[in-house]
Amino acid sequence: MSFVSIRDLTVAFDGVPVLHGIDLDIDRGEAIGLVGESGCGKSVTWLAALGLLPGKARVQGSVRLDGQELIGAPRTTLEGVRGARIAMIFQDPSSSLNPVQRVGRQIGEGLRLHRGLRGAQARTEVLRLMDMVGIPDAKRRIDLYPHEFSGGQCQRIMIAMALAGQPDLLIADEPTTALDATIQAQILDLLAGLRRQTGMAMVFISHDLGAVSAVCDRAAVMYAGRIVEANDIDSLFAAPAHPYTHGLFRAIPDLEAGRARLRPIEGTVPDPRALPAGCAFAPRCDAASSLCNSYAPDLKDQRSGGAVACFHPVQSSLRHMTQQEVPA
Amino acid sequence: MSPLLDVRGLVQRYATAKPLFGKANDIRAVDGIDLTLHEGEILGIVGESGSGKSTLGRMLLGLERPWQGEVRYRGQPMPAPGSADWRKLRADMQLVYQDPLAALDRRMTISRQISEPLEIHGLAKGEDARDRVAALMARVGLRADQADRYPHELSGGQRQRVVIARALASRPRFLVCDEPVSALDVSIQAQVVNLLRELQERERLTMVFISHDLKVVRNICDRVAVMYLGRVVEIASSDRIFSDPRHPYTRALVSSVPKPGQGLDGRIILKGEPPNPASRPSGCAFHPRCRHSDAGCAATRPELAEHDGRLAACLKLGHARPVAA
């Protein structure tokens, strides 16, 4: 059985469904990327799993961690999971840290809660964690406040806080989006290194496909509250099968491609209050047929590996053709 | 051909608040920049936070007076902020902001926000203004039925289109886009990038495109200036900068862009943090993070010099091109 198993997870806010049945398995030590545009449900999936959504959210389905059900679990159970077994880091470190508390104390909080460490013991461990995430001169800086660190260092502190509970799974929600290019590279390097070192599993939520491919083994692409394609990184990038994935890859400018005109996906993500009747991507899809407009395709395993939710997946022959097309 | 914008020896200095003891600290956000910008050109400015990109952009628009140096627009010196001449110039040059939600008034419908510059500059009124707004909305790809919406009812990409439509309302000839697509999703980002490129091609708009997203800069810009701690360390055509970067900082920056399918291999991971303008290293500001630096780099500040069809400021340029990249 997989370590984390999500089955038919749905979330609705004020009666508006935003997550339409997510199935996802994560093995121990595995790094999986969740890719998709804002509002597609990447973050909501994990906030729901950890019981972090506001009260008005209606969460149904099942999220099992080592067989233990988390949806609808009592608060005490969830508190034993959050931070201790599953930790989460967010996009904007400066708004996730408490500005009026010394960073050492903020990292130490996790140690006290999840590992019962206090006093000198906790302080030694905080120093070790700060060292581990690459904060130079930790001894001198343990008693500084968040504003005395740069953005990249604040993200390192966030990562140290997440590691304090020795989690089995780290959810990194756009961890490098707010950082400068060279610092982004440092943080990706750090996350990949920490995973090797600790063996923890990682969910890397990002819209940066390059970053996802750099640190993940596998990725799932989400659109309008559904997973539309999942595959291992190499196959996904070599042969995206869902028209949305395909379009996403084409829309990213390529450093090597010069100034060829970008090929955006026309239109916008549908309003969750007014989703199309069939496949949510159909209105933006070139391959859509009348079938797509009436029925939503299920995520189906493919013979060639991976899973796709599409009635008309992109053929590999066609993919080669589009790659060779002269840019408009 | 005379340049649209000519910048000489631009320096911007901010003083930090005087601490209780000791004296106030001087921060040179921009520290000596020369630039020329030709009509119809898109110049990219890349660099990390604190490198002075946005300060430079604001001085190019005359929103801030430089501490030293001069910006000439169409051969004329930039008028003082707030003066009548300066106000007239506002219609001609516009700033597209990074965060559309912060740049928009959340209690105003988007059609009103787009028509505001028309009223301010006395360009159109009543029916005429309504038509202009409708045309602007269509031009940036907003639907007519969105005219009465409020900013929070739109998606991030749509908000950025509103910001661009508003910037275009006064028919400017020069745009400074400060991270215009950073907050947008990939598929929408491509739409906005293409929109800006169309504007340049169709109307020969001149643009300065400030961004830390090198992939977008590569796609949209004719020329690129790389900034580090308030100075341009390398400037060349977009093709040159990205296919053959020479300054060690540019090389690290270009290599740090994750490429699908490449993993983490072959990237230059810089040590240390982006530098703090309040404590500028001596000599070449990049030397503490540079793997080619030596005592000379800590002592002498390199000036921009010609190297193979680009300008770069590095004392070790011979060494900056090692075989093992």
From TrEMBL, chain A:
Which molecular function term from Gene Ontology is one that the record holds? ATP binding
Family statement? Belongs to the ABC transporter superfamily.
Principal localisation = membrane
UniProt organism field: Paracoccus litorisediminis
Q: Decide whether keyword Membrane is in the record.
A: yes
Any one GO cellular component localisation term in the record = plasma membrane
Keywords, A to Z, come to: ATP-binding, Cell membrane, Membrane, Nucleotide-binding, Transport
Protein name, UniProt field: ATP-binding cassette domain-containing protein
UniProtKB/TrEMBL annotation, chain B:
What is the protein's membrane topology class?
Peripheral membrane protein
- Would the keyword ATP-binding turn up in this protein's UniProt record? yes
**What keywords were assigned to this record?**
ATP-binding, Nucleotide-binding, Transport
Q: Which SUPFAM superfamilies match?
A: P-loop containing nucleoside triphosphate hydrolases
Tell me, what is one Gene Ontology molecular-function annotation carried by this entry? ATP binding
Q: Which GO terms describe its biological process?
A: peptide transport; transmembrane transport
Which PROSITE patterns does this entry report, sorted A to Z?
ABC_TRANSPORTER_1 (PS00211), ABC_TRANSPORTER_2 (PS50893)
Q: Which GO terms describe its cellular component?
A: plasma membrane
Q: Has UniProt tagged this entry with the keyword tRNA processing?
A: no
Q: What is this protein called?
A: ATP-binding cassette domain-containing protein
Please tell me the species this chain comes from. Answer: Paracoccus litorisediminis
